Amino acid sequence: MNELIQITTNEQGSSVVSARELYESLGFSGAVFARWAKKNIVNNPFSIQGVDWEQLNIMLSRGNGAQVEGVDYALSTDFAERLCMLARTEKGEEVRRWFQAIKNKAMQAPAIASTETLLLQLAQQQAQLLTNQQSQLDQLRSDMGKIQAGIRPARARSAQLPLPPMRPAKDEALRQRINQRVNEYCDRYGYTQSETYRYLYKCMQSNWGINVYQYPRRNGESLIDLVERYGYLHKLYSVVMAEIDFVE
Fold this sequence. Notes:
This protein has 248 residues and is of the alpha+beta class. Helix content is 56%, strand content 10%. It has a four-stranded antiparallel sheet. Helix 3 (77-87) runs antiparallel to helix 4 (90-148) and helix 5 (172-189) runs parallel beside helix 8 (233-243). The longest helix is centred in the middle third of the chain and has 59 residues, at 90-148. The radius of gyration is 27 Å and the shape is elongated. The chain starts with 6 loop residues before the first strand and ends in a 5-residue tail after the last helix. The relative contact order is 0.09.
């Protein structure tokens, strides 16, 4: 697979790309990078500094060989993919599909590793089960011996089972950003929220094959609650950014 953009790892172990490399890959003019970056990265109301991007101070080479101070941005691959969707060009779609191919390839290797891990866990559980059964048999033999000797066997109190893990807290900030953008879109173009969300869910199905209408809903659960429960809120956010964001 040809490498369109170099993917590196930051100090937190996350995959990042250079905003300048992305900008060039999208086919934009290098003379207006600063304006594009300010509008689509720094002043983007749907991006979070420290999560989606980090500013980098770099040295840039001029045509005459001289170097000057400049600025670049380390973008998360998810955010870079969203910027490709915002480009709304054939080149942007090509780069977005490249990101998708990289992501799909990365997901295949963990799938094999997880299968091996699952088999190992099953083997360990089986071994532990056999150990527990042997321990229970030994305990029964000991208890029978004590009963035959007229001694009442002592019983240890059962240990309390651990409580199940709590459900992670909802991402209220992300939901508010989505709702805010949808409301602005509806006010500007006269669409209803229902019409807009139906369109966004259709885009989710088109982009990722996620049909939210086929997922079972809990009693009284809204569709956006379902999207968040299944961990698809960031994908909905990406569609909002690409489909109803107002960029020049």
